[in-house]
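Hi there,

I know you've been waiting on this one. I reran it after we fixed the sequence typo, so this is the corrected version. Both the input and the resulting structure follow.
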Amino acid sequence: MERIEPSLTVGNLVRQKPSRSRVFDQLGIDFCCGGKVSLQRACEKRGLAVASVVAQLAENDTRGIPGDHVDADAMSLTELCDHIEATHHAYLKQELPRLGQMTEKVARVHSDKEPKLQEIRQIFVELRAEMEPHMLKEEKILFPMIRQLEASVDLPEFHCGTLENPIRQMEHEHDQAGDALARIRVAADDFIPPEWACNTYRAMLDGLRELEGNMHQHVHKENNVLFPKAAELEASRALKVASS
């Protein structure tokens, strides 16, 4: 079995075996926006014993990769762009409007009893306002550039020069989304409903928990797999052009 080194970054550990994200989600370790942090450092930040986390990851590895955790690192860049659009973008386009209605309704009906519902609603509105144009920029600008790069023999000429600027912007927006999701989790008391919560309240919290998990997978596939591999390919093409 491959040894799990605490010095490896959290993002690379999930890149090697996507199912490890389940362990990190359960432990509250950020493997998407915080994916560049070593496992050792991530455990220190959460007050966790690194040996215990390594043991949980090793146990998870013996169970294999569940069907819903694809091996993004094995995909071509084009396949990964297609997968992200068909899986994560499609999910958000359906789920953000649904959760928008639910957060509005629950905040309106129950915020007198639980004031934090207004905070959850406001953070969600900000997150949605960020993610909808974010997806459009990826689908209309960045992903077509990456597909063109992979399909080309030489280095394509892009209107923005290189992939560096759009990738940096997407990662910045990922950081903002990750911060919003973390704030929602805190305001929602780790998505644990109060005893008096109605079914809509409970369904809203369940939906927000699922949104967080899906977004973690989404951002991981881009920050830790797609973007680095695209940047590496572009750099290699540039070197080839320079030496020819």
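Quick highlight: The helical segments are 10-16, 20-27, 39-46, 50-62, 77-110, 116-151, 164-187, 199-243.

Best,
R. S.
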